[in-house]
Write a structure and sequence with these properties.
heterodimer, A: 386 residues, 17% strand, B: Rossmann fold, six-stranded mixed sheet, four-stranded antiparallel sheet, 6 helices
């Protein structure tokens, strides 16, 4: 009878396509929107992820998230280096600076100053040039998204396109000359600003004159010490906040979560996707069952058991769920592939998301099947003669 | 061995005794069957005739085991299926009863052969084997070559023959038909009745037909006349 159930389903093409379209759209919303949300949230701490080498980030206790750097005195670096369990500690400058383009336009950028000696905190992947070239006079490295996007050289004609920044191009940061010596790959940040890497000393010279300029101190703990223990010791001995990389990511994530309405907005769309998906699918599937109610009554009269009818309807529901989810997930995967690596809109597609949305779709089709089965089981076979 | 002196009593396919059935409650209550006593013999074609609303359809629903009577008993081949569990009753119906409906009730998305195969599939036969049987039944009702046609591609008479093939494919002991010819013209109706009588009636089987169609009365072995929920006469002259 399963083949009969499937033929009944496929035979009513209008309703069949209506149901799978409803499920596909619901799946698309339930996968794509959280995928974009995850991508956005991962950008909030992408800088911490990119700076992979240090174990512990030391910062002013007032810092709330990674982009909220509260400058410290340079002397704090020496105090940290003196804490027991610290293998090494290097300075990091992180600040927003304005870059003047050739046409005079000012572009806000994220300026990172790396330890002059070790260049720790620099980009892991260089697309052009070498990280060591940062030691050349006025040298800076620009991230690829910035070089091809907001820092690209303006078009010379109204119809022309901007030219991506190249090694050897000159930028102007706070009226100071900066020579592009490399293009690097970096994860997109929450603010989607271009990222400019240089040495710590040069970064502080680009920045406006301030007494405190040290944003973070990057610390490597000795291998025989636990990260938490060293972090607590740094806080105890110096009064500075010290967090492991994971703790700092979590703190940044929570701050963005609690202080923006991103989660509410995206969550709302996901819930709407689920409800609309359930309502549309449930309604069309129920109508499909109602249209076939006479035939289900005929089956009952001819000796079909309730179990047989339940399984037929469940098969129909699971099949439309499977096909609809496949189409929705496929469309979302295409979207994810098309936006991969983009500085702007992008999404993360992971197995947890697929499993979660798959469960949601299963709930939708089970709901649709449940209301249909209920109707069929209550059906009196005697209606076949009416 | 039967008694050589006393004529053998024909086997009873159906014995209804004191059947009552009402619908609704309170002042809206309608008594559809008011104490029906009726026997249907194996090997006969019994027609139930009478005006609309006299209880014919209710009575064949009780006989077919798809509706419970309020009182009385209805024995099918010596067994009171009201005493069966729900599961046993469904199973008994699936194996022993065939149905033919006024409006055919063929599944529009299935071919003629697939429609005919349904009772076999319900009884657990595999699709391939069921289709072989179904094609054989379609051949018996002169629909050879139309096995893969959808119901919409068949005439009314052909659709009713598909429905007859479906009612007979699992070789039921009792076939119940509700107005099998009322949607057909006179000639087609007679052809359908010829097929039905030829295939559904046998020494160990019976056919009960509810009809208003006086054009087919001559096919009946007996005609039971109903009025207001009662059998008022049984005409044995056919």
């Amino acid at each position: 009878m399963f083949q009969i159930a499937l033929k009944m389903l496929f035979g009513d093409r209008g309703k069949y396509f209506g149901i799978i379209t409803g499920i596909a759209l619901a799946s698309l919303l339930m996968i794509q929107q959280p995928g974009i949300l995850i991508s956005i949230f991962s950008r909030t701490y992408s800088f911490i992820s990119d700076v992979a080498l240090p174990d512990i980030w030391v910062m002013d206790p007032m810092v709330k998230y990674v982009d909220d750097s509260q400058p410290m005195l340079d002397t704090e670096l020496y105090r940290i280096r003196g804490v027991k369990g610290v293998e090494w500690a290097v300075p990091l400058y992180k600040g927003n600076q304005r870059v003047r383009l050739a046409d005079g336009q000012l572009v806000g950028s994220n300026l990172l100053g790396l330890d002059d000696a070790t260049l720790i905190g620099g980009p892991a992947v260089m697309l052009k040039g070498r990280l060591a070239d940062l030691r050349l006079p006025d040298a800076v490295i620009v991230d690829e998204a910035g070089a091809t996007g907001r820092l690209a050289k303006p078009a010379t004609t109204p119809e022309g396109k901007p030219t991506p920044l190249q090694v050897g191009d000159i930028l102007e940061i706070n009226d100071k000359r900066a020579l592009v010596v490399g293009i690097a790959q970096a994860r997109a940040t929450f603010q989607s600003q271009p990222i400019i890497y240089t040495t710590y000393t040069r970064a502080t010279s680009f920045a406006l004159s301030e007494r405190k300029q040290l944003s973070y101190i990057l610390v490597k703990a000795k291998s025989d010490e636990s990260l938490q223990t060293v972090a607590r010791r740094i806080t105890h001995d110096t009064g500075m906040a010290a967090r492991t990389a994971q703790e700092f990511k979590d703190m940044t994530f929570r701050y963005i979560l609690n202080n923006t309405s991103i989660l509410t907005n995206f969550g709302f769309v996901v819930v709407v996707g689920f409800i609309v998906g359930a309502a549309v699918t449930g309604q069309i599937f129920y109508n499909f069952t109602l249209d076939n109610l006479r035939y289900f009554a005929v089956f009952k009269a001819m000796g079909a058991t309730d179990r047989m009818l339940r399984r037929m309807i469940l098969l129909q529901a699971l099949l439309v769920g499977f096909v609809g989810f496949g189409l929705g997930a496929g469309a979302t995967a295409l979207f994810a592939a098309a936006t991969r690596g983009r500085a702007g809109l992008s999404m993360t597609l992971n197995w947890e998301l697929l499993v979660g949305s798959g469960i949601a779709v299963a709930l939708i089709v089970l709901f649709a099947a449940l209301i249909s089965v209920r109707k069929v089981l209550r059906l009196e076979p005697a209606v076949v003669f009416k | 061995m039967s008694d050589p002196v006393t004529p053998a009593t024909p086997t009873l396919a159906v014995r209804c005794s004191g059947i009552t059935k009402h619908y609704g409650v309170g002042e809206a209550q309608v008594l559809a069957l008011r104490g029906i006593d009726l026997d249907v013999r194996a090997g006969e074609l019994l027609m139930l005739v009478g005006p609309s609303g006299c209880g014919k359809t209710t009575l064949i629903s009780v006989i077919a085991g798809i509706l419970d009577q309020d009182e009385g008993s209805c024995m099918l081949f010596g067994r009171d299926i009201k005493q069966f569990s729900q599961e046993e009753r469904v199973s008994y119906r699936g194996k022993n009863i065939g149905f033919v409906f006024q409006s055919f009730n063929l599944i529009p998305t299935l071919t003629a052969a697939e429609n005919v195969a349904i009772p076999l599939l319900i009884n657990g036969m595999k699709m391939d084997a069921a289709l072989v049987e179904a094609r054989e039944r379609l051949r018996e009702v002169s629909l050879e070559g139309r096995e893969e046609s959808l119901p919409t591609q068949l005439s009314g008479g052909q659709q009713q023959r598909v429905a007859i093939a479906r009612a007979l494919v699992h070789k039921p002991k009792l076939v119940v038909c509700d107005e099998p010819t009322s949607a057909l013209d006179g000639e087609t109706g007679r052809k359908v009745m010829e097929v039905l009588k030829q295939l559904a009636v046998g020494s160990d089987r019976a056919l009960v037909i509810v009809t208003h169609d006086s054009r087919i009365y001559d096919f009946a072995d007996r005609i039971a006349h109903m009025e207001d929920g009662r059998i008022v006469s049984v005409d044995e002259s056919h």
